[in-house]
Amino acid sequence: MKNNPIRPKWKGLMSDRERFNNQMHYKPVDRCFNMEFGYWDENFSQWDIFVDNGIKNIREADEFFNFDKIEYVSPNSWMCPSYEEKQIGETATKRIIINADGLTAEVPKDGHDTIPHYINATVVTPEDWKRCKEEHFQFNDEARIPNPEQVKKAHPPERDYPLGIDCGSMIGQIRNMLTFEGLAYACYDYPNMVEDMVETCCQLVERALDKLLPRVDFDFASGWEDICFKNGPIVSVDFFKNVVMPRYKRISKKLRAHGIDIWYIDCDGDVRLILPYFLEGGVNCLFPYEVNSCAHPSELLREYKGELRIMGGFDKIELGAGREAIKAYMETLVPLVEEGGYIPFCDHRCPPNVDPRDYLYYLDLKEETFSIK
Question: Does residue 260 form part of some domain?
Answer without folding.
Answer: yes
